[in-house]
Design goal:
Belongs to the MgtC/SapB family. By secondary structure, this protein is mainly alpha-helical. The chain has five helices and two strands; from the N terminus they run H-H-H-E-E-H-H.
Length: 157
């Protein structure tokens, strides 16, 4: 099979895995009735994996061309662009309540950022890291939430 198609299939598989892992995070947010849920987290993780995969492809393209001397590449910029875009999206989930005494959506915004990081990890073929971090994220979102509720109930007594 043509290496170009194999590369595309590899990126597609990475995007699918990233979306699956992002979906697990989003499912927890959906269950908690948060503004960014299943689909949003899936798309953020998938977009991060796709952008890193395309960046990798772009680097390979110019590395093998006559223009390699003219192109200065920095793969860190791709991650920076993903983080900037996700941060903008996350900012849209943060709002102050009507009385101005509390802020909501910070955890969802952080979850979106982590979903993007998982997508980047998948695209960099760090699959064990991506899966393990997803499990850690789920533990933080669910288990730590239960601990917070328990502490609040004890404080009320």
């Amino acid at each position: 099979m043509d290496p170009l198609y194999l590369s595309q299939l590899s990126i597609l598989a990475e995007v699918a895995l990233a979306m699956l892992l992002g979906g697990l995070i989003g499912l927890e947010r959906e269950a908690a009735d948060k503004p960014a849920g299943l689909r949003t987290h899936m798309l953020v993780a998938g977009a991060a994996a796709l952008l890193v995969g395309l960046g990798d492809t772009l680097l390979a393209h110019y590395r093998d061309s006559e223009m390699r001397e003219l192109v200065n590449t920095d793969p860190i910029r791709i991650m920076g662009a993903v983080i900037t875009g996700v941060s903008f999206l996350g900012a849209g989930t943060i709002f102050r309540n009507g009385s101005g005494t509390g802020i909501h959506g910070l955890t969802t915004a952080a979850g979106l950022l982590m979903a993007a990081a998982v997508g980047i990890a998948v695209a960099l073929r760090q699959h064990v890291l991506a899966v393990t971090v997803t499990l850690l994220i789920l533990a933080v979102l669910r288990v730590v939430h239960w601990v917070e509720e328990w502490v609040e109930r004890r404080a009320e007594r």
